[in-house]
Fold:
Amino acid sequence: MKLDAINPEIADYALEMIIVCKDDGSITYTNKKARKELGYGDESEGHNVYSVFPAFLDDTGHPKKMEDLVSDDPKDIIAYRVNKTLFHCRAVVFKSNPGFFVVMGLNISQEEFLKREISNAGEEVQEADKVKTEFVANVTHELRTPVNGILGSTRDLLSVVTDSEQIKKLTLIEKSCENMNNIISSILDFSKLSAGKFTLESREFNFRDMIDYVKESHSSRINEKGLNFFVSISPEVPDVIIGDELRIVQILNNLLSNATKFTSVGKIALEIFKTARVGNKVELFFIVVDSGIGIEKADLSKLFKSFSQVDASISRNFGGTGLGLNITKQLVEMMGGVIECESEKNKGSTFSFSIWVEVPSEEEEEEDDFDDVGEDFEAIEEAEEELPEGNEEEGGIKAFGSEENISEIEKRLSKLILCVEMQNWERAEMFADSVKQLVDNAPKEVRTATLHLKMNVQKENYDKVVEDYGQFLKYLSDYKEG
Structure:
């Protein structure tokens, strides 16, 4: 499919993304800019414009007609890359040859970032709810005093009581007091945020040490439930950053606690990437995946509202005030980011959010790298898993392209797809890790394909895994023939 009056070779020099699709949304052509922004590599066939632009779907999740999307006015919408990270985009749709449409889009992440910076600099503190929020703050402060008194007395009694029944009751009182303190803290945070009196306290800290702390804080509870817990950080993420460590931990604690609360079987995963840089500012992107109870698509709009839960049974069965995700959303936005949720009933949820932090001056790069968005996903550092058997050898198996290496990759892929067919996703992920180690020094497209395969195995997406598996075999076949 060629563009009317535009040579595709010339289109590759365009600053905007150019995407050509059929009326069913299937993509037939992307220019160089689009392939780079969306992480398609050299091929874009098999992708669909609706997976790039969710705004092209109606409220029920069904695709709108491409004909109805045609407009002369560009619209600011969210675009998704193949690795599920997102960016702000200004897009317009127009009709090309019969049955074909052209979407032109421009990544405006930098513009949105600068716009927020200007807005925050000139924005005055809003005092509309001052009386209400001050009242809430005063009441919660007063509540904390008697609660802490009960908690202290209970712990004193626990140190001297020996009767098992009394210990059980005192432990229940202690837990209730701790829960009450957590609720009070949430209400205080909410009242400060509503009154505009909440401020971030930035300082320099080691990011990976912070993630280790978060991991240790949740590992025990997650393992007690028999769940698997995976944490991975892209090597591109800076070791030292400047930001509000306490509030970043609060965001992650909230999302991981919710994932643990609503997941009975399966796993929980936390993945972190660096997605953009402007001067000494860096955008970090976090993904929290669980295999829990999930949420109906119609209820997703309720998630981030204050004092709101999907339905009353959630509060009865799992507890909570409905403030946690609202506070999380406000904290993320205060850090210049956005938070999104994808979920399906009984199939788990994926929360993703971005924040902007600073890097120390000695670690600043010479150039901004917005043009490199999407290239940080070629490799993920697994923080908690050992190398698969066989990868400690030098040369031979580990040297990509050797006969032994290709043979080992094909064996592991065969076992992986068998595990997928048997719905044994845990073992499938183990083989995906093994394949990832075997392609350490492979060409870029092979390493990228490995990452996509692993991520879709983690999400237990059967169709995508089968598609990635076929693509991977094609790469291996082409490499052997070459």
